[in-house]
Amino acid sequence: MTTQSTAAPGDGDDLAQLAKGGRTNTLGFVIRLIARIPFLVIATRLYGAEALGRFASALVLIEIVALLCSLGEKRGLAQRLSEGAGENRSAETNLVYDGILLALLYSAVAAGVLLVFPEPMFPNGMNSEWDIWLVATIPAFAVTEILLAAQAYRFDIATTVRARAVVEPWTISIGAGVFFFIPATREAGLALAFIASIYAGLLTALWPFLRSYGLPRGWQPQGRAMLSMSARAFPIVGADAIERGTRLLDIFILGLFAPPQAVGIYYAAQQIASLPQKLKTSFEPILSPVITKNLRVGNMEAIAAQVRQVGFWIIAVQLGIALVLGVPGEAVMGLWGPDYVAGTGALAFLLAAEVAASMAVVSESVLVYIARKRNLAISVAIIALQATLTIALIKAADAYGLGKGYEAASAAGALLVALATSSLVKALLLKRLLKAPVSNWRWALVYAAAPAVVVGYAFTWAPEWVELVIGVPAILGTYALVIWRRGFGEADKALFRKQVVPDPETDLA
């Protein structure tokens, strides 16, 4: 079988940059996976499903509001810098500080409103009075997004890995454990640990940013320019908020219609399933500068090739992760306690949803620049579809008395349908606009998944510790061997081949 080539002519430097960023993010994913396990163990075993459910419900509004306050700079900053600064490093610095100032202004207003009207944050109640101070993470989260986007514009992805995959998860894990054993902070442990992790991530991003960009020079923020920036950012930030909202809406609706225990079980499954989602969204910072550069010169063929290339990398890795975590799903959920095994169905749907969403995320990385309003309209329609399906399925599960596990699985099933629809519609729109194929699908994915499923199913008959210790590596090894031999061409293998990315400054020396 032959594999299709995804690289466009003259696209070597871009492919090298994408591959370098992809390798760094893949390493970051592994580190994030290792770091996330202690937090899940502590949260599920020490705090319990009910406390975890209340904490998860509170985070929904915090994350969405913080994302709105970042003004879509995770993707929009690359275009602003590309268009407005040229080769002027001082102008680049000032443009970044414009975004930071505006984000802080919006964050202050949002945090103030939530302090006065906190009820939407806590549909199932609060674990402690300290929970209200989760609003303090809004400005820190928004500014961190901008700092990391600024570093990514200069192809520094290592800072994102350090902040998001090392510092934040280890801080929340250690904090949750420490606060639990202090009587005065036991009930507030999850909230306090989350606050500490967000500010630790901010400091981790701030230091390299100051070394790279420094302080502003001759910076004079203009009110009219700020308003123009806000208006221009609306379609991007709207798409970002809706894309993230599809991963949080299910928790919010569960918090309204299901008991806290069901939310806690679902959140535990989502934390495992969201790891592939973190992997694909971490490609966005490195993809944005490459896309904006080719848009500036009108090289649509190169953009389509980059979408196909990155899209295949993402779906290939995500499918492997989904098989590793999904086939032994009962054993994986059982790690957090017997109550969480009921979330196995939700885990399976959530993992499938992340695989289905891969095309939507990569397509949207281009659509936010060339079809902002249409992309936003599609996103609004998708989240409306998800909300309708989620409510209908949860109510059906409750009406038939199927239990908390089925209620959680219903929310996950609605997410799967919504994200699959989003991928199809956005890929078709992008294909029409670029006048070139953009699909990341290859039949080699099926050829690699089939034997991996057979191997994994065989291990489900063994004791759980055998299933996890031996079965998981066997599934991963089987899948990786087949996909490498049958699915990866030379361009695809660049993701795993260490190569030197040309340095413009060195070349000019």
Brief summary:
The chain is mainly alpha-helical and 509 residues long.
What does this structure look like?
The chain is 78% helix and 0% strand. It is mainly alpha-helical and 509 residues long.
Features:
single chain; 509 residues; mainly alpha; globular; disordered C terminus
Oligomer: single chain
Succession of helices and strands: HHHHHHHHHHHHHHHHH
**Main pleated-sheet profile:** none
What would you call the shape? globular
Hey, roughly how much beta strand do the residues contain?
under 5%
Helix content: over 70%
Structural class: mainly alpha
Average pLDDT level: 82
Number of helices: 17
Low-confidence stretches: 1-10, 500-509
Count of strand segments:
0
Q: What's the gyration radius in Å?
A: 22 Å
Distance between the termini: 45 Å
Q: Topology, pairings included?
A:
Layout: H1 12-69, H2 73-84, H3 89-116, H4 137-153, H5 158-180, H6 189-212, H7 223-257, H8 260-281, H9 284-297, H10 300-326, H11 329-334, H12 344-370, H13 372-399, H14 404-434, H15 444-459, H16 464-486, H17 504-508
